[in-house]
Amino acid sequence: MINNEEFQDEIGNNHISTNAENPVRKDAFDITDEIKIDKIKKDVENILITLGMDLTDDSLKGTPNRVAKMFVKEIFGGLNPAKKPKASTFDNNYKYGEMLVEKNIIVYSTCEHHLLPIIGRAHVAYISNGRVIGLSKMNRIVEYYSKRPQVQERLTMQIVQELQIALGTEDVACVIDAKHLCVNSRGIGDIESSTVTSEFGGKFKDTQTKREFLDYIKLETKF
């Protein structure tokens, strides 16, 4: 019979998501970033000392503080709803009614199972029903949801859902092709494999529209 620790390892090693939303506590933002950095700094110090590292060495002295700031301000900054980009939209005055595709948006995220990088590219498309969004806002939405502990399936869905809300249409699609360093650099150690996820809404569920989108992106992602 599998015990609880083995079950948790099975979920993590197979990259299984247990929640469609990021599992964030309700009190996650009751303390300031500065307090979080101070707490994480102490934890990183303890990890390095436990591993046997000499924190009096000039190269390591600042590492706990650097890691703490990186966690709070950078790679996990997308957890903070205050940092959510404003997805400004505009009237489609030029009446463009075909598919708009933004290819090769860089994805830097972090696997929530091993806290190792996910690196890849997102391809996002929508069909306007009267509103359009600035191209850079699509990049910022991808970045915002990437900057948190993630699973790729959830990230793909969140990007689509956010754009559907902003644009007021179901006609949004996203494909992500990414390498997971928890697969590439540990465990099976397969440096070549990548993971592809997709989410298709509205008209993109139609076979012809979906094929047109996939033809545009061709999934020839290189890392």
Automatic annotation (TrEMBL):
Coiled coil: none annotated. Zn(2+) binds at C111, H114, C182. Its EC number is 3.5.4.16. Signal peptide: none annotated. The keyword Hydrolase applies. It catalyses: GTP + H2O = 7,8-dihydroneopterin 3'-triphosphate + formate + H(+). Residues 40-217 form the GTP cyclohydrolase I domain. Keywords: GTP-binding, Hydrolase, Metal-binding, Nucleotide-binding, One-carbon metabolism, Zinc. The keyword Zinc applies. GO terms for molecular function: GTP cyclohydrolase I activity. InterPro entries: GTP-CH-I_C/QueF, GTP-CH-I_N, GTP_CycHdrlase_I, GTP_CycHdrlase_I_CS, GTP_CycHdrlase_I_dom. Pathway: Cofactor biosynthesis; 7,8-dihydroneopterin triphosphate biosynthesis; 7,8-dihydroneopterin triphosphate from GTP: step 1/1. Homopolymer. HAMAP family: FolE (MF_00223). Belongs to the GTP cyclohydrolase I family. This is GTP cyclohydrolase 1. It comes from Flavobacterium ranwuense.
